[in-house]
Amino acid sequence: MTLRIGIAGISGRMGRLLQEEVAAAGGTLSGGIGRDGDAAALFAGSDAVIDFTNASTAERHAGLAAEHGKALILGSSGLSAAQETAVMAAAKHVPIVYAANFAPGVNLLFALAERMGAALPPEQYDAEIVEMHHRQKVDAPSGTAIGLGRAVARGRGRTLEEVGMESGRDGHTGARATGPIGFAALRGGQVVGEHTLLFAAGSEQIALTHRSFDRRVYATGAVRAAQWAAGQPAGLYDMKHVLGMG
């Protein structure tokens, strides 16, 4: 049976790319909604729904996925703690792939970030993350940047909330503290997405950079995630599971 995939946010740039990628992957587009639309009907008529809208709809869409027993691929960034809690609650009933980024290369970068965080102690290596996106992006730091920070912190045996974030430095801030992870967000033009993770010590510096040149890589990854999730038991997954790294 052909997988029926619905798209929340179908009228945006990502929505148009997702339509093309659903067809390219041999799936069936079951429908889509824009800013307004019957989300309940979309979930009822789909096997999986891909949601690249915004944080404000994440809780409702996760709830509808659980209510209708359908897989959800969630790519919205900037979710609050309460919204993430709602997504986790829904994942007890249906498979949800919630990822900061659906590009395979970025998810390999997450894996490297965790390993490097474990190998490079914070007392000797300061971790800094620099990201740049198009001028229309509304949240900062980006979800991918925060994902990198979480990976580094996880490698160091802690959470990002525990190690702390330093961002928006301005004026006489004093010396850099030991332990927190630094974030810098740049916005301008139509940059699809650039992320650099730096580990800086007194005697060396290591930098890992990923650049996205085409948003299609996110659409291709999201459709791949939908195909994978439709056959999984209930649970909260991310792209490392889809790529076989989890």
From TrEMBL:
Pathway annotation from the record: Amino-acid biosynthesis; L-lysine biosynthesis via DAP pathway; (S)-tetrahydrodipicolinate from L-aspartate: step 4/4
Binding site for (S)-2,3,4,5-tetrahydrodipicolinate: 134, 143-144
SUPFAM superfamilies in alphabetical order: Glyceraldehyde-3-phosphate dehydrogenase-like, C-terminal domain (SSF55347), NAD(P)-binding Rossmann-fold domains (SSF51735)
Enzyme class: oxidoreductase
Domain Dihydrodipicolinate reductase C-terminal: 105-243
Annotated GO MF terms: 4-hydroxy-tetrahydrodipicolinate reductase
Residues bound to NAD(+): 9-14, 75-77, 99-102
Active site, UniProt feature: 133, 137
Matches recorded under CDD domains: DHDPR_N
Keyword Membrane: no
Swiss-Prot/TrEMBL keywords: Amino-acid biosynthesis, Cytoplasm, Diaminopimelate biosynthesis, Lysine biosynthesis, NAD, NADP, Oxidoreductase
Positions of the Dihydrodipicolinate reductase N-terminal domain: 4-102
Transmembrane segments: none
Complex formation: Homotetramer.
PANTHER family: 4-HYDROXY-TETRAHYDRODIPICOLINATE REDUCTASE 1, CHLOROPLASTIC-RELATED (PTHR20836:SF0), DIHYDRODIPICOLINATE REDUCTASE (PTHR20836)
Family: Belongs to the DapB family.
Protein name stated in the entry: 4-hydroxy-tetrahydrodipicolinate reductase
Organism for this UniProt entry: Teichococcus globiformis
Gene field: dapB
